[in-house]
Amino acid sequence: MGKHQCRIIIPDLDSQVDQNEEWIYVEKDGRRLKLRLHDYGQLYKIPGLYEKIFYEELNCDSPSVVCGLLGDALRETGNPDGDLRVFDFGAGNGMVGEKIKQLGCELLVGVDILPEAKEATERDRPGLYDRYYVLNLADLEDDIRKRLESYNFNTLVTVAALGFNDIPTQAFLNAFNLLQDEAWVAFNIRDRFLSESDDTGYRQALESMINNNFEIMKETRYCHRLSLNGEELCYHAIVGRKTGNVDIASFVSN
Ligand SMILES: C[S@@+](CC[C@H](N)C(=O)[O-])C[C@H]1O[C@@H](n2cnc3c(N)ncnc32)[C@H](O)[C@@H]1O
């Protein structure tokens, strides 16, 4: 079983199972566990399991794609602001932090809602982040807002964490509003949340942000990962610069 010391068994799944309902069996220490792929807290508890499922089995490459696109934009603009002061929102166990560090980063702060994410980061990638907070930004208290604002972030990166009941629009826009004007924003999102048929509020919120408070510099549609059935899950990676704060109260309902 090698370094991960667990075995993944992919069940024969009905093709109708949605991305956030997918599940697998994991055999570890003679026990068989049934885990949902979006039950990140359980996945992070087992060293290497998140990487093995998403990166080795399901070909996820989103941290490289999103951070690579940000790197391209920085090179093309000559990176006028110098070293990055990065807010990695939905940081998980640090896969994105590792990539962003390679871009030349003066400060790296991670936030995730799960204590298991922070524990896994400290266990598997100690010292990667300058600070890592377990926080719910949907409900941003004043002292937390002030502390995060004091970092003067000039970059927000959010990878594989929007949609599917993960980061709600309110929390993402709160994070956006913490940034300095002209900050870089790099994120990805499943294509369906930007389509006409979206009824989750994401399209409305992101459209308003993009039309009024954001200048897109780079965008690409790509395969975020395979589903357990082998189908490509298409995402948009978007990189741009903040032009002003979003008026969140005017349209966010969740
Ligand atoms: C698929 S993981 C992605 C982790 C990392 N960005 C990566 O690309 O490997 C999604 C992460 O978003 C976090 N998340 C979900 N809802 C959140 C919220 N409301 N606030 C902060 N983090 C959240 C989850 O706990 C999880 O760690």
Q: State the secondary-structure class.
A: alpha/beta
State the shape.
globular
What is the CATH superfamily of the largest domain? Vaccinia Virus protein VP39
Strand elements, count: 10
Biggest pleated sheet: 7 strands, mixed
Strand arrangement, largest sheet? 6-5-4-7-8-10-9
The helix content is 25-40%
Q: List the ions, cofactors and other small molecules found in this model.
A: S-adenosylmethionine
Content of β-strand:
25-35%
Number of domains: 2
What's the level 1 CATH class of the largest domain?
A: Alpha Beta
Write down the CATH topology of the largest domain.
Rossmann fold
**Helical segment count:** 8
Radius of gyration, in angstroms, nearest whole number? 18 Å
Determine the N-to-C terminus distance. Answer: 43 Å
Q: SSE string, helix = H, strand = E?
A: EEEHHHEHEHEHEHEHEE
- pLDDT averaged residue by residue: 93
Oligomer: single chain
Low-confidence runs of at least 5 consecutive residues: none
